[in-house]
Amino acid sequence: MELFNEVKNRYFQLVFRIINECADGKLKSDVLKLIDEGEFEQKVIGKNQQSFADLVLNRCDEDENLNLLKEKEGLFYPAFNDAGKLPIPVRFTNIEKAWLKAILEVDGVRMILSNETIDKLKKELGDVDTPIKKEYFELTNTIKLPQLDNKEKYVQNFKIILEALMNEKPIRYSNTDKYGNVYSDKLAVPVGIEYSMRDARFRLSLYCLDDKRPIMANIFSLSDVRIVDEEVGINREAAKKILFEQKYSEEPVVLEVTDKKAAMERCFMCFSGMERTARSLGNNKYEIRLNYYLFEEDNIVRSIISLGPYVKVLSPQSIADKVIDKVKKAIALAEMG
Amino acid sequence: MFSDFIKHYNIIRHILRDCFLYGCFSRDGLENKRNVSSRKVSYEMRRIQQYVEEEYIRFDKDRRYKLLSLTYDFMRHTQNFLINTYMTKSFTRADLLTYFNILMYLNSKDCPCSLNDIENGLIDHSMISFDKISSKTIERKLNEMCKTIGVLCCKTEKRTKYYSISPDVLESFDEKELLSIHIAISLYKNIISPVAGGYFTEQTLMDYMKYERNLDTRNVQVFNFRNLHFHPVIEEQVLWEILNAIHTRKRLKLVYCKPSSRENLQETKGLCPYKIRYDVRHGRFYLISFNENSKCIVSRLDRIESVLILEDTFEREGFEEEYNKQMCCSWSSVSLDCGKEPELVKLEVIINDESERYIVDKIMNESCNGVLEKIDEGCYHISMRLNDTSEIIPWLRGYAGYVRILESRALAEKLIKDWKEMLLVYGIV
Question: Which CATH number does A253-336 carry?
Answer without folding.
Answer: 3.30.70
